[in-house]
Design brief:
Structural class: mainly beta
Strand order of the largest sheet: 2-1-3-4-5-6-7-8-9-10-11-12
Distance between the termini: 26 Å
Strand content: over 45%
Length: 179
Amino acid sequence: MPESALADEVGSLAFLLAVQHEITRPELRFYHRLPQVMFMSSASPVVLCTYHYDATDRLADCSPAGQGSDRFFYQQNRLATQIQGQIQHTLLRTDEHLLAHLSVENNQNDCLLLATDQQQSVIAAQGLAFAYTPYGHRYPSGPASLPGFTGQRLDPITGHYLLGNGYRAFNPVLMRFNS
């Protein structure tokens, strides 16, 4: 697809992950022209992930390089289901509380009951316990499909929370929004 067609794509967002020499803290930069996460070094850039948004500007698809795409489905502006190839992850919730995480793969169900705090941060699941820093870094990291701090999804490529329907990246390690 030519670059001009990508520039016109509605809701496109790109991340440029720049790592220079031996700097250990990567910087995340936003570009609204291309919907891709790119790894930059002294060599040419490598696309790590491509993001797509639906008509209501919600993250609808994430395609990591060399892997199948992850599709996202929402209910009342909250993530309800994530489909990764043959695996379906569903979050069961009441009006305001997360209750369980259901994974279905090849007709095999795996359900985790979730314990959350007042901000909807998952602090425990069956056999797992989590702790968070004040800015949302989870330890231990746990399954990527489980919600994190304040019930938000952690991006598996960057480790950031994509807030504001995926347009604002918050880095819980650096404790900063990246822009």
